[in-house]
User: What shape does this take?
Amino acid sequence: MHVGMGVFFQGLDQSLNDHELVTQQLSLADSAEALGFQSIWTAEHHFTNYHMMPNPAQFLTYMAARTRTVKLGTMVMVIPWHDPVRVAEEMSWLDNVSGGRAVLGLGRGLGSIEFDNFRLEMGESRQRFVEYATAISDSLESGYIESDGELYQQPRAAIKPAPYATFRGRTYASAVSPESAKIMARLGYGLMLIAQKPWQTVVAEAQQYRDLFVEINGHEPPQPVLVNYTTVHEDAGRAQEMHDEFTMAYARSTVDHYEFTNPRLQTVNGYEYYAGLSRNIEKHGLTRFNKFLADLQISGTPDSVVDQVVDRVRALNAGGVINVLAYGGMSREIAEEQTKLYARTVLPRLRAIDTHRDICIPSVPMAPVAG
Assistant: This one.
């Protein structure tokens, strides 16, 4: 199976300033290819310490020059916050300079603070996602972007440099709500999964998505990409301590950043699923919900982590796993130690298991796109 590294610029360690945190994470990213990881990914967030990455394409272009073989993925670019022309241009540039190693992950966003500070109406995000994503994906096949949507009008314009190769089969989207999943299937995207629901629900919804995708498109979707916030240690007790400290801190930062307890989500069009989540937190308590989120991630000894990943990947029929190994206020020493341990004791075993699995297997043959 495919094994990648997620780079998460999370500033929860109060002993580090922003520059020091960025430097720490860049050091881990620089080690990924040599350690055997097959891809490097990062997400997009703004305005808080939750994750300081305003432009994943910019970071991945930097990494393209420092690597030779790893795939370079966005997990995700939140396209309602961007001009679609710029997303198409940036991804085409990244793919050209990396020789076709780009993987496009897209999302519609959830953080109120981000929509507010970008001066955007959050309730329009679903429609903007559909119109923007359609225009972006079409442009990366044709070399031209245009749109006559209700919210997005774009006269026909060339994407330069022209797209290097088709993005069919290597475009993914994060989808939590059933309504979003239907949109992703119609667009032909694969699923990028970060568990926020009971595991049985995640597996069931992934199967429903596969069935819907085949019904709409007439062929299998790209195998899903599973993202895990992972702690690993040779001592099971220490692995549990790391989970309790760092994964719990990450889970709490997720609740805070996305404001899951904010009643506002109950009134925003397109975010009805999160209104139910808010009521669930109110019913069961924040501490219990925080633990629930944390326990959806993977933790344990190397043997246990291998077993958990294999079980999950097979249950989802996924192509592989992306591991975030530095987050939640980890010191540089702890992050480097567990990254090296994972690379030495977990990664080679996973890569040797289910070798038929991979990400970015195109649904149609990849071929250069004319400029």
Notes: The chain has a mean pLDDT of 92.
